[in-house]
Write a structure and sequence with these properties.
Layout (H helix, E strand, L loop, with lengths): L3 H35 L4 H10 L3 H13 L3 H11 L1
Helix pairs in contact: 3-4
């Protein structure tokens, strides 16, 4: 049976190994937030789309779709084709 100390060691190792991936997501999130803000949307739109949209690249495409006034059906088809 593993002790709590061993489990903490595993968690610490996993955290250290995931730092490069987390840094990548932080910079992508900043870029998405800046893109969305330059399109004229508020900061809470970035949070909302990050929670709702599972496909990361679709978030960036959605900025241009929202700015261009695309319809829901067109947006859904684009999401299907991108994924």
């Amino acid at each position: 049976m593993e002790t709590v100390q061993h489990k903490r060691g595993y968690i610490g190792f996993a955290f250290r190994q995931s730092i490069p991936v987390m840094l990548g997501y932080i910079f992508l999130g900043i870029a998405f937030g800046l893109l969305l803000q330059n399109a004229g949307y508020s900061y809470w739109w970035a949070f909302l789309t990050s929670v709702i949209i599972y496909a990361g690249s679709m978030q960036f495409v959605l900025v241009s779709l929202l700015s261009g006034g695309a319809g829901l059906v067109y947006t859904a088809l684009m999401t299907l084709f991108i994924n």
